[in-house]
Amino acid sequence: MLIQDAQREVRTVFFGGFVGQLVSGLIWLVSAALATWIEPALGIWVLVAGGFFIFPLTQLLLRLMGRRPFLSPENRLNALAMQVAFTLPLNLPLVAAATFYRQEWFYPAFMIALGTHYLPFVFLYGMPHFGALAAILVGGGVALGLTNPGPFALGGWLTAAVLLIFALVGAWVIRRELVRLPAETGPGVTKGPS
What is the DSSP secondary-structure string of the chain? Predict the structure, then answer.
């Protein structure tokens, strides 16, 4: 399988990253809301614990959309996808260290970790907009961490908004691509177009 074909399958199966970013964005939204209106510690725990459910929830939503939630065995990008999936959990000790030093660094540190997690998506999906997403998250996390401009959960609210916007961008890009594919709508669809 050529790299372009493998990337096309990643884009098609995971719908341009729409579903995963939607799930992630909603978890960030719930975390920010809880940190704002109930208790910062609750928002922290929801984001950390909720992050472990992003992949299974993404797979569930893909199935509900009538899409297969995994790449074909011949796709050599399977290994890269697995490695990328572990970058964020492996950065959590740095997020914890920053948070223990200054609690208001939790969301900015997590933004930086999440942004670096999205950078390899540029190649994995073959979609350059993931580079912009990574830059916005890393740059925003650094800026918020250095300036501490507002309420504790500001980074959570901003990240939720950015993820939801980029989820829509990914969906728009893949819908345009699917329109150009033959009538069977390409790999990744198990029953009719969605």
Answer: --HHHHHHHHHHHTGGGHHHHHHHHHHHHHHHHHHHHT-HHHHHHHHHHHHTTHHHHHHHHHHHTTB--S--TT-THHHHHHHHHHHHHHHHHHHHHHHHH-GGGHHHHHHHHHHHHHTTHIIIII-THHHHHHHHHHHHHHHHHHH--S-TTHHHHHHHHHHHHHHHHHHHHHHHHHHHS-TT--TTBSSS--
> Stretch 110-119: mean pLDDT, rounded?
96
Give the C-alpha distances (Å, rounded to integers) separating 84 from 61, 73, 113, 119, 124.
20, 18, 12, 9, 9
* Model pTM score: 0.88
CA distances from 7 to 114, 127, 128, 154 (A): 21, 9, 12, 34
Q: Which pLDDT does position 164 carry in this prediction?
A: 97
Residue 185 has pLDDT above 90, yes or no: no
pLDDT digit string (tens) for 127-175? 999 999 999 999 999 999 999 878 999 999 999 999 999 999 999 998 8
Backbone torsions φ then ψ of 156, nearest 5 degrees: -65, -45
| Contact assessment for residue 50 and residue 121, using Cβ atoms and an 8 Å cutoff | no
Interatomic CA distance for residues 87 and 35, integer angstroms = 25
